[in-house]
Write a structure and sequence with these properties.
Layout lengths: L2 E4 L2 E4 L6 H7 L23 E4 L6 E2 L10 E3 L3 H16 L15 H8 L16 E2 L5 E4 L8 H9 L6 E3 L6 E3 L16 H5 L5 E3 L3 H9 L4 E6 L20 H11 L3 E4 H24 L9 E2 L4 H10 L13 H17 L6 E7 L3 H6 L14 E4 H10 L21 H4 L6 H15 L19 E7 L14 E8 L1 H12 L7 E5 L17 H16 L10 H11 L5 H7 L6
Helix pairs in contact: 8-10, 8-14
The structure holds 2 iron/2 sulfur/6 carbonyl/1 water inorganic cluster.
2 iron/2 sulfur/6 carbonyl/1 water inorganic cluster (HC0) binds next to α8 and α10.
GO cellular component, one term: membrane
Cofactor: [4Fe-4S] cluster; [2Fe-2S] cluster
Main location: membrane
Length: 586
């Protein structure tokens, strides 16, 4: 291993390590505005410059690999002076307006300027062109705040495989945005918000719906219910100083109650319902092919992640027949809240407001799709991100950490551990397999370890195969059939998987795709900054939540069972088709 010196400290680090990583190892965090841990270097912002003995000029630490005998200074007068100049230049063209910026608390530009003691900029003159794009339901883009770090470009192209954002022009006139400065709504953007998750300033963010929710909460003629997505509980605590991986379900419920919601429900309830509907859809397609020798589109793809739906509609329209007709749990919830639940409590659905708290920005756009009005009204009225919920809690000055743990309301607040794990990449698959095994064999899964480790974790594409035996008579057609499943997260991985399937190189029966790296725990609306370490901590927290549940299989949810008995009839029945299923198109 090469031996190097950093600020007079000698250490050995593996070949290939960058100066930025080696410095962290030596105990020095070098500021950067373009680098994201675990991602390839961009070398764009130049804030991370360091002095290296023998080099004629300062080097960017993020893109310089260490070499034997390097003598690195991360804090020389020359380094400090250069960093200040770079930061002053960035600040001179950044339209701050900090007091009304939603990055008020976590702006990386402001934080680094503060650590360098910068209190103003000596540069005056032209400002960056200000243009505000609010053309999508999910995201805004403000070019006046953009510092051209290219993090958004990198994540959109290399992680998501979408390519909606580009650097255009040169020098001071450089603009980051869609080609020809088109609005986001007119390009291939899938509204996943991964750009907003990595933006160091307030140049891209979610279009907030906080004011609309405050209005609903203060309107006494409205019955306002809230649903919380599986991934929120493992991340909201980070906004209140808890380390990543802290589950705050009880405090989240207590906070929502104090915000004034009339009922606190869980998207997890309809995640359990999704397993019933989507599992039935899969078995029905398998039966068509294996028993009736008819035609059914296999593999079946999951449909719950709206960025994936947008991606498929844009890039793979020929695969749409393969996508489950199930609406996402968010939308199933809205449709049921304004029909079954409204009737149950005697509220006119026009007076019911359904609010979602989601880790996902694309959920805002999903709620506004014209087909999501099964109740006769927009089924989900407002969608908040995890960050927006934290903002509302801070607005009313709640001591979040001091809140007691409270429970969700019935009937839609009760869920199983299988629903919790929807938040993790591989979770929908695991939940489906837990239910399928028991429903098809009539036997309980042996032991307490229900995890399907082949589809868990951060590998981009994961696969598993299983053969079920001793099946119940109705399912005997599956006897001896090798069922192949796959899971992809991050749309770049999804693209590779789908293209492999289209070329006939890969054959599966069921495929889970989640838009964001790690699944919803890594959603574009989650607290910043989501690194792989943070993803893994949140995933473990979700598994702990699942393991602590009384029921861990969706078909065991007593309230889901009651819903079928009282209202829906059976999975894939007439009412389910009316309320819980849809079709997708371009
Ligand atoms: Fe997800 Fe969902 S699990 S997409 O990842 O299925 O956003 O958390 O809410 O709807 O349940 C996001 C998270 C959800 C939905 C659920 C699914």
């Amino acid at each position: 291993m090469p031996k190097i010196t950093i600020n007079a400290k000698t250490l050995e680090v593996p070949a290939g390590t960058t100066v930025l990583e080696a410095s962290l190892e030596a105990g020095y965090q070098i500021p950067t505005l373009c680098h994201v841990a675990g991602r390839p270097a961009l070398g764009a912002c130049r804030v991370c410059v360091v002095e290296i003995g023998g080099y004629p000029r300062l080097q960017a630490a993020c893109s310089t690999p260490i070499a034997e005998g390097m003598e690195i200074k991360t804090n020389s007068p020359q380094v400090r002076e250069a960093r200040r100049t770079v930061m002053e230049l960035l600040l001179s063209e950044h339209q701050g307006l900090c007091t009304i910026c939603d990055r008020d608390e976590d702006c990386e530009l402001r934080k680094i300027a503060g650590t360098l003691g910068i209190q103003g900029t000596p540069y005056e003159g032209a400002q960056a062109l200000l243009s505000l794009d609010e053309s999508t339901a999910a995201l805004y883009r403000n070019t006046g705040k953009c510092i051209k770090c290219r993090r958004c470009v990198s994540v959109c192209h290399e992680v998501q495989g979408v390519g909606a954002l580009f650097p255009q022009g040169r020098g001071f006139d450089t603009l980051i945005g869609p080609a020809f400065s088109s609005p986001l709504a007119e390009v291939v953007c899938v509204q996943c918000g991964q750009c907003a998750a990595v933006c160091p300033v307030g140049a891209i963010g979610e279009r907030q719906q906080v004011d609309a929710v405050w209005s609903a909460l203060s309107d006494t003629s409205k019955h306002v219910v809230v649903q919380t997505a599986p991934a929120i509980r493992a991340a909201l605590g980070e906004c209140f100083g808890y380390p990543p991986g802290t589950v705050v379900t009880g405090k989240m419920v207590a906070a929502l109650r104090r915000l004034g919601f009339d009922a606190i429900f869980d998207t997890n309830f309809t995640a359990d319902l999704t397993i019933m509907e989507e599992g039935s859809e899969l078995l029905s397609r398998l039966k068509t092919v294996l028993v009736d020798h008819g035609e059914a589109a296999l593999p079946l793809f999951t449909s719950c992640s709206p960025g994936w739906i947008n991606f498929a509609e844009t890039f793979f329209p020929q695969m749409l027949p393969h996508i489950s007709s199930c609406k996402s749990p968010q939308q199933m919830f809205g449709a049921l809240a304004k029909t079954y639940y409204a009737e149950k409590i005697g509220v006119d659905p026009k007076d019911m407001v359904v609010v979602s708290v989601m880790p996902c920005t694309a959920k805002k756009a999903e709620a506004e799709r014209p087909e999501m009005r099964a109740s006769g009204y927009q089924d989900v009225d407002h969608v908040l991100t995890t960050r927006e919920l934290a903002l509302m809690i801070k607005t009313i000055g709640l001591d979040f950490r001091g809140l007691p743990d409270e429970s969700m309301d019935t009937p839609f607040g009760i869920s199983t551990g299988a629903a919790d794990i929807f938040a993790n990449s591989g979770g929908v698959m695991e939940a489906a397999l837990r239910a399928a095994y028991e429903l098809v064999t009539g036997r309980s899964l042996p032991g307490d370890n229900l995890h399907v480790t082949q589809v868990a974790g951060l590998t981009g594409v994961k696969e598993a195969s299983l053969v079920l035996s001793d099946l119940l008579p109705d399912w005997s057609f599956l006897e001896g059939v090798q069922l192949n499943v796959a899971v992809a997260h991050g749309l770049g991985n999804a693209r590779n998987l789908v293209e492999g399937i289209m070329r006939g190189e890969r054959r599966y029966h069921f495929v889970e795709i989640m838009t964001c790296p790690g699944g919803c725990i890594g959603g574009g609306g989650q607290p910043r900054m989501t690194t792989d370490d943070v993803r893994l901590a949140r995933m473990e927290a979700i598994f702990r939540e699942d393991e602590g549940k009384e029921h861990r299989k969706s078909h065991e949810n007593p309230y889901v069972q009651a819903l079928y008995k009282e209202f829906l009839g059976e999975p894939l029945g007439h009412k389910s088709h009316q309320l819980l299923h849809t079709s997708y198109g371009v």
